[in-house]
C-alpha cells in the first residue's frame, strides 16, 4: 500500500514532504470502496476494506516504531494582528469588499468554511436593538445555532460594517434565498449568482494571507482554530480562569443556567457568558446539581450534550 498523499497539494501550497496520517487513509479507504461500488458499479470483494485496514494497521505499527511524523497538524489560528495586516493589502474593489466581510464574519462567528458557504442573505439580519448582527447558522457540523455579532472596536475590522458594505454590493433587491458570499467576475468585477463552495472559502483566506505575507498560512479552519471545544472536565471541577482571550467562545459550560432559563437543546447559556464572568466547567451552583445526569452547554456549537459524569454535590 502506498501511503503517499492521494491528491496533489492545493494551489499555491508547495509540498512540504509531510505524508498522509493513518486516520485520513482509513477514511479514504471507505470513500474509494463506496464510490467504486455505487458509482462505478465495480464488483469488489466483500472484505476488501477490512483487508486494506488490516494492512494499514501493520503499517501504523511500523510508523509508531520509527516515530514517523505525518500530517500537516492543526490549522494555524487567525489572530487580530493577522487580520490587521491582511486588511491593509486587500484590493479596493468588490473582491476586497467581499474578502473583508468574509474574513471578519468568519472570525466573528468562529465558524467553519462550510458554515460560511451555506449562509444565505436571509440568515444574516440586523439586531432589532441596533447592537450588531444576528447570524443564523443553519448548516453546521454539530447543530444549527444563532450567533450575535456585535460591532468591532476597530472600524476597519468591524464585521457589521464590512457585511453592510458587501450587502450594498449585492443590491438592495437581492434575493433573500441567494448566497450571502458569491463569486465575483475576474475581469468585470461583477457579482455572480453562484455562491462560494467550502473549498473556495478556505482558498480566499489562504490567498489573503499570501498577499499580506503573513507568518502563517491561514486555511478555512484558521478563524476557529483558537476556539476549539473545551477538553473533558476533570473529576474534581476547577473554575475557569477569569482571563479571557478575544473571541466568542469562552466560557463554554454553563449547563445549569441553560437548563433553568430555556431548557432548549439548541440554546446555549446567555447570562454568564455574555457578561464574561468565570464559570466552572460543570455549571454554576444551584439546586440542579443533585441530579445524576446533566447536559453540558457548548457555546461554540450552541448545542447541549449528554454527560456521563454526575455533578458534584
Secondary structure topology:
Elements (H helix, E strand, L loop, with lengths): L21 H17 L9 H19 L13 H8 L6 H15 L4 H5 L6 E3 L5 E6 L7 E6 L8 H12 L11 E3 L6 E5 L2 H15 L42 H7 L9 H4 L20 E4 L4 E4 L7
Antiparallel strand pairs: 1-2, 2-3, 4-5, 6-7
Helix pairs in contact: 1-2, 3-7, 4-6
How are the strands of the biggest sheet laid out side by side? 1-2-3
Spell the H/E element sequence. HHHHHEEEHEEHHHEE
Strands, count: 7
> In what range is the share of β-strand residues?
5-15%
Distance between the termini: 54 Å
Could you say which structural class the secondary elements and strand pairing correspond to? alpha+beta
- What is the makeup of the main sheet? 3 strands, antiparallel
The number of helices is: 9
Helix share bin: 25-40%
Low-confidence stretches: 1-9, 228-313
Q: What is the averaged pLDDT score? A: 76
Output the radius of gyration. Answer: 23 Å
- Give the CA-based shape: globular
Task: Please give a handful of descriptors for the protein shown.
alpha+beta; disordered N terminus; single chain; 9 helices; 313 residues
Amino acid at each position: 500500500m502506498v501511503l503517499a498523499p492521494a491528491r496533489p497539494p492545493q494551489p499555491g501550497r508547495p509540498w512540504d514532504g509531510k505524508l498522509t496520517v493513518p486516520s485520513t487513509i482509513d477514511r479514504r479507504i471507505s470513500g474509494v470502496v463506496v464510490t467504486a461500488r455505487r458509482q462505478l458499479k465495480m464488483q469488489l470483494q466483500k472484505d476488501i476494506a477490512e483487508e486494506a485496514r488490516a494492512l494499514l494497521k501493520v503499517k501504523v505499527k511500523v510508523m509508531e516504531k520509527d516515530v514517523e511524523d505525518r500530517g500537516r497538524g492543526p490549522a494555524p489560528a487567525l489572530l487580530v494582528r493577522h487580520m490587521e495586516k491582511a486588511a491593509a493589502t486587500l484590493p479596493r474593489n468588490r473582491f476586497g469588499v467581499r474578502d473583508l466581510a468574509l474574513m471578519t464574519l468568519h472570525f466573528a462567528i468562529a465558524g467553519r468554511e462550510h458554515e460560511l458557504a451555506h449562509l444565505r442573505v436571509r440568515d444574516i439580519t440586523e439586531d432589532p436593538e441596533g447592537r450588531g448582527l444576528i447570524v443564523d447558522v443553519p448548516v453546521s457540523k454539530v447543530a444549527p445555532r444563532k450567533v450575535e455579532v456585535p460591532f468591532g472596536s476597530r472600524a476597519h475590522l468591524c464585521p457589521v460594517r464590512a457585511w453592510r458594505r458587501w450587502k450594498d454590493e449585492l443590491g438592495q433587491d437581492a434575493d433573500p434565498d441567494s448566497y450571502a458570499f458569491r463569486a465575483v467576475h475576474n475581469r468585470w468585477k461583477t457579482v455572480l449568482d453562484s455562491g462560494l463552495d467550502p473549498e473556495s472559502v478556505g482558498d480566499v483566506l489562504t490567498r489573503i494571507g499570501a498577499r499580506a505575507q503573513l507568518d502563517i498560512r491561514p486555511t478555512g479552519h484558521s478563524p476557529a482554530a483558537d476556539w476549539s471545544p473545551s477538553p473533558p472536565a476533570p473529576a474534581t471541577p476547577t473554575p475557569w480562569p477569569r482571563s479571557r482571550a478575544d473571541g466568542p467562545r469562552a466560557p463554554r459550560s454553563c449547563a445549569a443556567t441553560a437548563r433553568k432559563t430555556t431548557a432548549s437543546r439548541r440554546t446555549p447559556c446567555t447570562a454568564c457568558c455574555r457578561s464574561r464572568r468565570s464559570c466552572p466547567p460543570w455549571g454554576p451552583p444551584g439546586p440542579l446539581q443533585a441530579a445524576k445526569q446533566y447536559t453540558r452547554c457548548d457555546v461554540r456549537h450552541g448545542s447541549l450534550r449528554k454527560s456521563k459524569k454526575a455533578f458534584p454535590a
